[in-house]
Amino acid sequence: xxxxxxxxxxxxxxxxxxxxxxxxxxxxxxxxxxxxxxxxxxxxxxxxxxxxxxxxxxxxxxxxxxxxxxxxxxxxxxxxxxxxxxxxxxxxxxxxxxxxxxxxxxxxxxxxxxxxxxxxxxxxxxxxxxxxxxxxxxxxxxxxxxxxxxxxxxxxxxxxxxxxxxxxxxxxxxxxxxxxxxxxxxxxxxxxxxxxxxxxxxxxxxxxxxxxxxxxxxxxxxxxxxxxxxxxxxxxxxxxxxxxxxxxxxxxxxxxxxxxxxxxxxxxxxxxxxxxxxxxxxxxxxxxxxxxxxxxxxxxxxxxxxxxxxxxxxxxxxxxxxxxxxxxxxxxxxxxxxxxxxxxxxxxxxxxxxxxxxxxxxxxxxxxxxxxxxxxxxxxxxxxxxxxxxxxxxxxxxxxxxxxxxxxxxxxxxxxxxxxxxxxxxxxxxxxxxxxxxxxxxxxxxxxxxxxxxxxxxxxxxxxxxxxxxxxxxxxxxxxxxxxxxxxxxxxxxxxxxxxxxxxxxxxx
Length: 509
Fold this sequence. Notes:
Involved in peptidoglycan biosynthesis. Transports lipid-linked peptidoglycan precursors from the inner to the outer leaflet of the cytoplasmic membrane. By secondary structure, the chain is mainly α. It has helices spanning 3-35, 39-47, 49-74, 78-105, 107-114, 120-133, 136-152, 157-181, 183-206, 220-251, 258-294, 296-333, 340-354, 357-373, 376-401, 403-429, 433-463, 470-491, 498-507. Helix 3 (49-74) runs antiparallel to helix 4 (78-105), helix 7 packs parallel to helix 9 and helix 12 (296-333) packs antiparallel against helix 13.
């Protein structure tokens, strides 16, 4: 993908994703205002993880496994590519229906495992609202299929817009139903929102001429062969979701509101990731697949460029969240049932989640690289290792740091996994000494800039007049951090800034 096309695509997807994520932010704020960090909120956030966890295997098999095969097959024959997608898409849709049936039958033991710290009343409520949300899995599967096909065709707009539809539905459900029906109304909103995500994409997806194909027996060997190929991807994806599950399982044994605090902190963490970084990852993925098919040199060049952009874009957000997390939480959530005490406990989690923001984004990007290379087993092992690290550290650190320890455990596990993944790719690249020295030098520049910006932001925060309200403080600090970061990046001649400088320079003449 050309640089100009990449910038335009990322920009468009960023704008659309930004609208969706702002609505998602509004959604979380409204949920916080109605439920705060109460028992009901804790129950809802645990229950909402069930359909997500069950869907993960199917969704990842589609996005990271079937879509590269679809693109590879399409390079040979459009007709064969459509046939493959119809067969495998239908098969996974049937699997999702079977998953729903099993989950509905075994909801009670599932909740018992996921929330060992819940009392009988909380567990009963969790079972009921989980059963309301579980059918959303079939709509998530349909959405994943349509999103994968549209993105493979480099149509990014509608998939990016689908989150907006979901958030609008959940907001309406919360406002209209929560006062009367509590978390039941919110759960219905989640179900309808999942349906809306697919419906918004359906008109464009229909043009791809991909339909149902139930001839599983005739194509049994092909399905088995492909599913065996995908099992490391599926296990890796489940492992990633297990990190969230571990966080919530451990937090159910802490003080009331701990599950909710982790959720709200996680939502704040993923706001910049989703608005700025996920569009970049989404737009680069087809190019990563194409690069892997062409040569490893081309592939690694895209990985290097993407990783540099992600690291560079993540750092100012990380600094802002670490230094001014309490203000951000107060602005985002502190109203209604969300008290100042809820802000304090949420900030404990946000502080240590934010420290790992770069690695949360980088891990997803690097995993896509391994899927494109079909190095799925190594990706799987790295995810399983990260889960083990997260479990051990979460249990140990939560005893002395409560929710902060759980968040720190997640950040450390992400850091370790990123080092392992990138180290493997770098060794395969067989980079010369000049490249390694350049990479180290560039990293040292960015770290030095981050340190200087952090010191400047802390100094500025301490010098701010006490009479300023939270919004003004946050705006001033945000402008200072981003302005100083960009200025120092230009002064230090950070390589990642070069394309932007060239583009602005051309427009100035």
